[in-house]
Amino acid sequence: MTETAPAPTTHTLRTSEAELVYDVRGDLGTATADRPALLAVGTPMDARGFATLAGHFADRPVITYDPRNVGRSRRQDPDRTPAPEDHAADLHALITELGVGPVDVFGSSGGAVNALALAAAHPEDLRTVVAHEPPAGGALPDADAVRAACRAVHARYQRAGSGVGMASFILLVSHQGPFPTDWADGPDPDPAMFGMPAGDDGRRDDPLMANMLTIPVWAPDVDRLRTAGCRVVLGVGAESGETLAARAPRAIAEQTGRDLVVFPGDHTGFAGGEFGQVGEPDAFAARLHEVLDRWAHPRSVR
Q1: 178 preceded by cis ω (within 30°)?
Q2: What is the full per-residue pLDDT of the chain (302 aa) written as tens digits?
Q3: What DSSP character marks residue 85?
Q4: What does pTM read for this prediction?
Q5: Domain residues for 41?
Q6: Which of 131, 136, 191, 213 is in Cβ range 3.0-4.6 Å of 163 for a Cys bridge?
Q7: Final residue in a domain of this structure, among 186, 213, 240
Q8: 7-18 residues labelled b (16+ CB within 10 A) or e (exposed)
């Protein structure tokens, strides 16, 4: 069950590239080598998505934040979609500002991609990185087809709006197995299949759609991840099958020799209904505790 967690306090970090709003639960001064602060990151999901998960970690301070292009945070250049390396630079700045490193990081989806980029660039910031279902299509044998599919989703959104764009996105993230080169051929999907309106509201500012050109096409620096001086764990949902977000962590684990850990549920296994999805948050948090705690007392978590 969810523990009694402290109410978050909200803060702002200003860098040359962004204004980052973040929340801290608990006293940062209580972090220890065995119980470091936990930084939970998503993209494009903001800090709200980790409310349930944070409640399971009242034994240590928990930090959540809004990435520079979503929620309460702001970027200096609104016309440029940040790449994983940009988000990694923001996370490095946040850890440095707080002075609590090395920390544990749990990254979800695009946040898992950004966490891997951080591990490659600044392993000294980290004790353990748990990258849960990073949709890093660049790591896969069908990377070119993944990139073409992501470009097609973005192009449909730009041409026809959010209904068609989101319907295309759902088809992409739920696709099982390698992507065929002709995935994007054919007519636009009908948004009504997913209970969404087909009309175009004229907006083209959805960060999820902008991220299609940066996050799921990303390829990790395998050599840096293989030799990084922090622990790197790739996570996959037990119910995720052969989706992009499940195939990529398996591939990265194989390429880097890092641990692959199966978590309860699917891509949103940790969710407690913050954005409508309800996973298996109690079981998920217990598994995450197990993975993090075993760094202090190393043994296999496979």
Answers
A1: no
A2: 455 667 899 999 999 999 999 999 999 999 999 999 999 999 999 999 999 999 999 999 999 999 999 999 999 999 899 999 999 999 999 999 999 989 999 999 999 999 999 999 999 999 999 999 999 999 999 999 999 999 999 999 999 999 999 999 999 999 999 999 999 898 999 999 999 998 899 999 999 999 999 999 999 999 999 999 999 999 999 999 999 999 999 999 999 999 999 999 999 999 998 988 899 999 999 999 999 998 654 433 33
A3: H
A4: 0.95
A5: 9-136+218-293
A6: 191
A7: 213
A8: ebeeeebebebb
